[in-house]
Amino acid sequence: MSKTLYKTPFSRAYWKDAVADAKKLRTLVFSALMVAACVALGYLQSIPVVNNIRVTWGFLARALCALVGGPVNALVFGFVEDTVGYFMNPQGGWNPFYIFTTMLGVFTYALFLYRAEVTVLRVFLAKLATNIQNVFIGGLGTYLFYSSKGYWVIVGGSAIKNAIMLPIQTIMLVVLFAALLPILHRMGFLPNQAGRLKLWKRPEWLPEKTPKEEQSAP
Asked: Residue 36: is it exposed, middle or buried by C-beta count within 10 angstroms (0-12/13-18/19+)?
C-alpha cells in the first residue's frame, strides 16, 4: 500500500494526509468498531495490580484507532467514544475534563504512531505522554469536579498509579501491535513499512540488509 511515512508530524503534507484519511469511509467504519470495542472492553473485569490500581482495557482500542485513523480522526473519535462510553456505562458524574483528556490522549497516540514505523520505543513514548496527560489534566478534572483534596495531592497519587501502570500498559500495547500490525497491513490500513512491529528503528547511516544477507542471518 503506497502511503507516505513521516519522521515527525510537523509538516503540511502530514496534516493533509491526516485530514484525507479522516474523511475516508473505511476509517469511519474502523473508528465506529473501535468505539464499540471500547464500550465492550469497559465491561470486562479489570485486573488488580496493587492496592486500588487496576489494569483496564479501553486504551488498547484507542491506540489502534489512533494508529489507523490519524490525529484529526482521533479528536472526533475521542469525543464520541468517551461520550458513548459514559452513557452506556455511567459511573460517577459526567465530567467534560475527562472527554478532553480522552481526546488529547488519542490525539497523542496518533502523533506518535500514525504514518510512522511502529517501534517499541515509539509505543513506550506514546504511552508515557498519555500517562503524563492523565496525571496533570485528568487530575485537574478530578480536583475541579469531585475531590475535596488539593490538586497536588491528587497529582501525586495519580503519578504513582500511572508510573506503576506504564510498563504494564506498554507491554500490552506491544503484544497487541505485534499481533495486529501484519493483519491491518494486509487489510490495507497500514503502509508496508508499518506492517510489523520493530524493536528499534534502523539508523539512516546503517545500510539495509540484502535479501541474501537476511537469508544467511542466524
From this structure: middle
Least confident window among 72-81, 108-117, 165-174, 193-202: 193-202
The answer on pLDDT for 48 being more than 90 is no
Query: For residue 114, which phi and psi values (nearest 5 degrees)?
Result: -70, 135
Q: Please tell me the distance from the alpha carbon of residue 6 to that of residue 83, in angstroms, as a whole number.
A: 31
pLDDT for residue 218 is more than 80:
no
Distances (CA, A) of 37 to 30, 57, 59, 116, 175: 10, 10, 10, 24, 17
CA distance 76 to 163: 28
Which cell numbers in the block locate residue 140?
485537574
Nearest to 60 by CA among 91, 26, 37: 37
CB 32, CB 94: distance < 8 Å: no
First-to-last C-alpha distance (Å) of the chain:
30
Percentage of the chain beyond pLDDT 70 is: 89
The number of residues making up the chain comes to 218
Residue 1 has what pLDDT?
46
- Residue found under cell 497519587: 157
Give the burial string for 159-197 (b: 16+ CB within 10 Å, else e). Answer: bebbeebbeebbebbbebbeebbeebbeeebbbeebbeb
Which pTM does this prediction carry?
A: 0.87
